[in-house]
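Case study 2.
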Amino acid sequence: MTMIRDLAVACMIAMSGCGHARVAKTAFPPHNDVVVLLASDPSTWVKTGQEPELYTWSPDPSVLDHGRQAMRFERAAPERRDTSHEIDSARALVASHSNASWAATVANISGRGFVGKRIRLTANVKTDGAIDGAFVWLRVDHEGQRTLCNLQNPADLRLKGTHDFTPLSCVLDVPSGTSNIAFGLGLDGTGRAWIGPATIDEVGRDVAETPHAVDGRQRETVAGDDSLPGWVMSGGARAEYEIKLDPDVTRDGHPTLRLAPIADTQGRYATWMRSIDAPDYRAKRVRITAFTKSVGTTRRADFWVRVQGRDSPGDGPGLGARSIALGESDWTARTIVLDVDEKASQVQYGIGIAGPGKAWIDDPKIEFVGSDVALTAAYPGEQTIDDWLMTGVGAPDYALARDGNAVRIESSKSDRYVALVHVAPAASSTSGFMRCDATADVPDGAKWILYGVSYKGDGKAWVRGGSLH
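Prediction:
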């Protein structure tokens, strides 16, 4: 009973002062001596994820599990807005019809009493309209590293749609040096989920561990390793994809990792990615390389790098980003070079796809390079004529040419985004507004017209008016 006593004490310490937390023992069939962790006050838990502010976490006295009040996690459906007359960006148009957010609740207990054990987190979860699914997760913090299970959210560990209370579990080993155990309930997209008392117990070695990743600076090679320490699945559709070691697709004689959909993705994106702390890379130039192969990727497929600041949103370019469109190709060396901002908190890179197809990755790595190594263009295929720049993810699909006293962009094969930008010095005046005009012909089949103002450097800029005729 020592293990259980240690955990009970640790739980009371972790929840001390909230006034509403409760720790108890119970017989949770079919296992005895199980610690039950309750939090009837949502302030004893915290939220994390992508846009966690969209989610509410509260006790629900109307829903009981084993006679005890359940906690409810909820995100309402996004408001549909009319963008037919106001499209401020392609991203806004997509976001207004997307549920690409997720959040998870987080509770912490001491791991002291479980060192050297294999533990199982179990909780009953109920869902209502959880289109993208609800899940439980478990993390073990040890010696500066984190072992996290169910971050990739395997489809067989998720409840999608509407279900009555169903037991979900995660199993992990607790190594020496463990200081903390974290766990919680996660929800992708919209819907509601309830969780009853969460239980943690010791299990035998005959109970398999849940697939997991280890967060830490470890070797980068993919060969023979289907967990790739420090890498995780992310993106709004991460539940519809899986990463697997593929013995049938090799490079230099070893198996490689395959990213592929396991369900209908409805064209949504997922990425297999790594995040590393940026302090060692700040104000330096880095080169990120990997070998990729892709088959049947008729929509988006890319190898990408992004530098994130402490307050950078989860979906965006952060403090700088580059990507390479993969298309369909055999093994190809991919290289991205960029400067890491001095305010960076993380450097992230990975491979992603949206829609059908498969992509493989091998031997990803990051290294320092000198200032003599050229930076990667923001978008491959960028072209210039005089002061005009053609840029965007679809730049490789388009041609830029002079047409009389105008410049012309055209493509007969692409539905990817491209922009034609005129680069000019900012107005020197600081006292008044300056009128700016741009004229363009709109070709048949155009989907959007986007316009705006951008600037670079110190100071402030104001915009007023803005009309399309």
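The longest helix spans residues 2-14.
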